[in-house]
Amino acid sequence: MTPKYLIVIEKTPNNLSAFSPDLPGCVATGATKDEVEDRMREAIRMHIAGMREDGLAIPEPSSVAEYIEA
Description:
3 strands; Double Stranded RNA Binding Domain; 1 helix; alpha+beta
């Protein structure tokens, strides 16, 4: 089974940006939600491939997100 990493998508003044808390430094941007998700998917693949090439351990997904009323 392919691991699923949490991504956080934030609106910026010009576009959307995304990052994964479990993969520091792995980021992407896009004009739409679909575009930033596609770019983040590719960024995660490239990030993990780079970690493997460098002999680094691949972190297991561990972040979770929840909406709460305030």
